[in-house]
Design brief:
Length: 136
């Protein structure tokens, strides 16, 4: 179900799907996999797991996170819109004639937060379901 990761993978949006849905590595008792993306979808979780032996089988502890570049971009976006929005809110509170310019800026903050959170949660739930079916 998991193939080796490639630096560049070309998958056409209307072409045949990849033979395996996930790519990643397994070394020792740990693994790191992610779903092979079709197109430019950035919110697929990177799944890291540790396998621990138990008296009757094993247990797997997984962690899901976004790619580091995506996290960096989201932090930059949220920091910029949040700080500008808060400064404009304070300016509006001090001088109401400025107008509520903070509303669209803080709206961009909320939209970026939800744009990151909702797709990640959906994909994390799908990945959890995939792993539970795969491992049972």
């Amino acid at each position: 179900m998991v193939t080796f990761p490639k630096l560049f993978r070309i998958i056409l949006p209307f072409g045949p799907p990849p033979a395996k849905l996930y790519e990643g590595t397994i070394s020792g008792n740990t693994f790191k996999i992610n779903r092979i993306t079709i197109g430019r979808y950035l919110f697929f979780p990177i799944i890291q797991g540790d396998i621990h032996t138990q008296p009757f089988g094993c247990s797997i502890k997984i962690r899901m996170s976004l790619h580091k570049i995506v996290i960096g971009f989201i932090i930059l976006w949220l920091w910029t819109t949040g700080s500008i929005g808060m400064f404009s809110l304070f300016a509006w509170l001090v001088e109401p004639s400025v107008g509520p310019i903070f509303l669209p800026i803080l709206g961009m903050f909320v939209c970026a937060w939800l744009l990151c959170l909702i797709p990640f949660k959906i994909e994390a739930k799908a990945a959890t379901k995939f792993l539970s079916i795969l491992l049972t």
